[in-house]
């Protein structure tokens, strides 16, 4: 793989230290990354403090860099397609690497492959494919939106990925749904390294709102001397249905759809329990159950006594008797409340002592979570990324 990346780009930085002009990924947190180009005299201001570019020059990639005041810090990472996807400026919705890696594998994209991409967008997929195909491959990328095209062109050029600076990406401003893939076939059948006829695209990736309208033109530029593959990226199932119908009518085979869902897990460490601790916890559960039953019985007796007292007060005709009944009822309620308070206090005292012991143990064990008394495991994260899009794949068989 390394031999295919001989052209000069941001992913082939060989220096171990940061130099002027290098693109650096600034890691602030797991979900907060950005990119900067090192220029003398400039500075980077974040919520963690101010960082001067002059102070970054000469530091090792991966270094922890303190702010000017020393109150904050950040990490300076070497750019990779995976990190660039997390740090790039969003011009559109982007593909993330769970989808990108699956597409790359299923389309059989490898060093030297010729790939067509319709819908450049923010360039996340383009950067990853450029690394995969290397200097011997070609990526023909089409973007219909002029402003996004200009920004992508400037970005690819500064990263050393555009064809006119020795990179594998050839970017064109074109609406492929209305105008097809233009002179792409002439590009392949012309002079230079693509002189051999029928040496067309090995793989096609369509990230379009209506991919079915571009399938016929895509078929014309696909390599028919071997099995070629296509993928359509669509967020809605209705788009998938229409795409599948069109693929079938055009003679594509092995049509299949996938959805890539990522489940993030977080590391956890919990204390290895002794038999005595388990027995104590079970006893605590039984005590709580008995206390709950006792409370329920007291509440039932309280309701019964109140009902009896109410009936007695209705049959009494004198004010003195009513007053006596009220006093009796109040006295009874007070006694029952005292009983409840006593039982609650005892339960609280018991459970409080147990909780206090557990808290003391946790505090004591926090000093070393990875000793023999702890078990390391993982659990699903509270928040996970949901649906992005559906991936519809098909193959085009070679002509006999």
From TrEMBL:
- Sorted alphabetically, which InterPro entries does this protein's record hold? SAM-dependent_MTases_sf (IPR029063), TRM61_C (IPR049470), tRNA_MeTrfase_Gcd14 (IPR014816)
Taxonomy, superkingdom: Eukaryota
Alphabetized Gene3D superfamilies for the sequence: 3.10.330.20, Vaccinia Virus protein VP39
What is the E.C. number? 2.1.1.220
Positions with biased composition (Low complexity): 307-321
What compartments host this protein? Nucleus
Q: Name one GO molecular function term.
A: tRNA (adenine(58)-N1)-methyltransferase activity
Query: Where in this chain does the record put each tRNA (adenine(58)-N(1))-methyltransferase catalytic subunit TRM61 C-terminal domain?
Result: 72-318
Task: Give an example GO cellular component term for this record.
Answer: nucleus
What catalytic activity does the UniProt entry give for this protein?
Answer: adenosine(58) in tRNA + S-adenosyl-L-methionine = N(1)-methyladenosine(58) in tRNA + S-adenosyl-L-homocysteine + H(+)
Alphabetical UniProt keywords: Methyltransferase, Nucleus, S-adenosyl-L-methionine, Transferase, tRNA processing
Quote any Pfam family the record assigns: TrmI-like_N
Q: Which residues bind S-adenosyl-L-methionine?
A: 143, 207
Q: Name one GO biological process term.
A: tRNA methylation
Q: What class of enzyme is it?
A: transferase
Location of the region described as Disordered in the Swiss-Prot/TrEMBL record = 290-321
Q: What does this protein do?
A: Catalytic subunit of tRNA (adenine-N(1)-)-methyltransferase, which catalyzes the formation of N(1)-methyladenine at position 58 (m1A58) in initiator methionyl-tRNA.
Family assignment from sequence similarity:
Belongs to the class I-like SAM-binding methyltransferase superfamily. TRM61 family.
**Annotated protein name in UniProt:** tRNA (adenine(58)-N(1))-methyltransferase catalytic subunit TRM61
What is the species listed in this Swiss-Prot or TrEMBL entry?
Phakopsora pachyrhizi (Asian soybean rust disease fungus)
């Amino acid at each position: 793989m390394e031999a295919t990346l001989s052209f000069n780009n941001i992913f082939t930085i060989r220096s171990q230290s940061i130099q002027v002009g290098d693109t650096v990924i600034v890691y602030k947190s797991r979900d907060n990354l950005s990119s900067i180009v090192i220029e003398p005299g400039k500075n980077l201001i974040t919520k963690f403090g101010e960082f001067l570019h002059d102070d970054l020059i000469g530091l090792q990639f991966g270094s922890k860099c303190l702010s000017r005041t020393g109150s904050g810090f950040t990490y300076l990472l070497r750019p990779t397609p995976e990190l660039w996807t997390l740090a790039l400026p969003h011009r559109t919705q982007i593909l993330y690497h769970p989808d990108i890696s699956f597409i790359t594998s299923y389309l059989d994209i490898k060093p030297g492959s010729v790939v067509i991409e319709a819908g450049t967008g923010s360039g996340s997929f383009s950067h990853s494919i450029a690394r995969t195909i290397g200097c011997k491959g070609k990526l023909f990328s089409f973007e219909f939106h002029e402003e996004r095209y200009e920004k992508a062109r400037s970005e690819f050029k500064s990263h050393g990925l555009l064809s006119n600076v020795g990179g594998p990406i050839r970017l064109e401003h074109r609406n492929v749904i209305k105008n097809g893939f233009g002179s792409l076939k002439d590009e392949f059948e012309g002079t230079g390294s693509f002189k051999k006829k029928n040496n067309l695209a090995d793989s096609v990736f369509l990230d379009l709102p209506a991919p079915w309208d571009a399938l016929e033109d895509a078929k014309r530029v696909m390599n028919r001397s071997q099995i070629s593959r296509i993928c359509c990226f669509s967020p809605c199932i209705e788009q998938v249905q229409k795409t599948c119908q069109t693929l079938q009518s055009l003679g594509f085979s092995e049509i299949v759809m996938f959805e890539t869902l990522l489940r993030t897990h977080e590391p956890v460490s919990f204390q290895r329990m002794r038999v005595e601790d388990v027995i104590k916890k079970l006893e605590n559960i039984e005590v709580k159950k008995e206390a709950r039953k006792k409370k329920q019985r007291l509440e039932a007796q309280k309701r019964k006594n109140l009902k009896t007292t109410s009936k007695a007060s209705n049959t009494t005709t004198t004010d003195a008797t009513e007053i006596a009944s009220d006093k009796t009822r109040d006295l009874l309620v007070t006694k029952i409340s005292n009983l409840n308070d006593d039982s609650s206090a005892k339960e609280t005292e018991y459970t409080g002592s147990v909780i206090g012991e557990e808290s003391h143990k946790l505090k004591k064990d926090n000093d070393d979570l990875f000793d023999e008394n702890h078990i390391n495991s993982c659990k699903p994260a509270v928040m996970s990324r949901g649906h992005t899009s559906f991936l519809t794949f098909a193959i085009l068989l070679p002509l006999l």
